């Protein structure tokens, strides 16, 4: 059962940051459509 869910997510296209266009290495769904750099300007 779980394998189907894993396959589903594997087949999803890579997300791209709406700010800079970088591909987002998705590990945290709550980040939406921006990469770490664009989400956390305070970390720079
Ligand atoms: Zn970005």
Structural class: alpha+beta
- Write down the overall geometry: elongated
Low-confidence stretches: none
What's the number of domains?
1
Largest sheet: 2 strands, antiparallel
Give the mean pLDDT. 76
Total helices: the number is 2
Measured distance between first and last alpha carbons: 42 Å
Rg for CA atoms: 13 Å
Q: What is the percentage of strand-forming residues?
A: 5-15%
- Small-molecule components bound: zinc ion
Widest beta sheet: strand line-up:
1-2
DSSP strand count: 2
Secondary-structure element series:
HEEH
In helices, the fraction of residues equals 25-40%
InterPro entries: YhfH-like (IPR025432)
Organism: Mesobacillus maritimus
Protein name: YhfH family protein
Q: What is the element layout, followed by pairings?
A:
Blueprint: H1 2-10, E1 15-16, E2 23-24, H2 36-39
Antiparallel strand pairs: 1-2
Zinc ion (ZN) is lined by residues 17, 19-20, 22, 34-35, 37-38.
């Amino acid at each position: 059962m779980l394998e189907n869910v894993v396959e589903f997510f594997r087949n999803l296209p890579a997300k791209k940051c709406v700010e800079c266009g970088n591909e987002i290495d998705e590990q945290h769904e709550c980040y939406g459509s921006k990469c770490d750099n664009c989400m956390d300007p305070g970390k720079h």
